[in-house]
Amino acid sequence: MTVEEAAQTDEPPLRQLVKVLWEERQILGDLLFKLEEAHLLLAARRQSWLPRATVEVQDVLEQLNTVDAKRGRIAAKAGAELGLGDSPSLSEIAGAASEPWKTTLLEHRKALLSTVASIQSATTRNRSALVAHLAAVGDALSMLGVERHQSYGDDNRSAAVPTAKARVLDTRA
Question: Which residue in 27, 48, 149, 163 is a FRET match for 117, CA 20 to 30 A apart?
């Protein structure tokens, strides 16, 4: 049964929430896997596959956004049933729930936090690898006579950006 089907049934909101949390954990696992794939491509210097890997990561992120919205709606229903505010956190819902829901929800929360930490680590590692590859490309372009000028990246740190300069290549050499 999908989360959408569960939402249309008379299933208790806490049961629906547990189901959507399983789905979210699966999608987060998929995201971590896709980030690891991208890292392996970077490490193997197989940049030609990076656009495809990026699309796959974006697809998983879209799935995650969809499930996150479902979880928000179901959590609001569960929170209302437990007398909590409009958008209670998973921790608040678990704190107000009776057993076995409390333990189950806290286990999901712990697993979600762990997976998110792994995703953050993979993202940082991939970003570092991309910066290193960009620097290597910049160095190679410099060797070919392409000048670089200073610019700023998304993190407001100074970064060298290559600029093309006109060149004539002697193909007879």
Answer: 48
